Amino acid sequence: MTLESLLKDNTDYNLWANAQTVNWLKTNPLELMEREIPSSFPTLRDTLLHIWGAEQIWLERLRLIPPTTFLSQPFNGTVEDIFEGVLRQSEEFAGYVQDLPDAKFQEICTFKLLNGTEDSRPRSKMIYHCMNHSTYHRGQIVTMARNLGLSDPPSTDYIKYVRLK
Q: What is the pLDDT of residues 42-60, one digit of tens each?
């Protein structure tokens, strides 16, 4: 397996895992999405919004588009909008990576961090970081949801994705 094929697989896995998480959350009372619980972000809603925003901003950086703002700052939509947005963004990210020529994976991208600092990274490391970041926050969602009394989260382990594939 090449680095390129691994990253393509990982973005497909991310889309699948985000879909499993969103579809599960949709089956539970929506008011739980707004209930505060200690974590990196105060609610399930905010954690999902962060995943969406991070995937969006990293995709802009990969495309060499200067980001204007982080999604969570101006967002006023509904929880349903977030569910749709997370899935749409993950699908767009996966599509971008699937269509990326192999030679572009090692290309260095120069971009600005949210604080204005300039940074440069190989596209492959940016993709890997973003997918790992989403996995980290999906784990937080499961822990937060369990603390809210939800005991039936879906398994989003990579090996389950491989077995289903």
A: 999 999 999 999 999 999 9
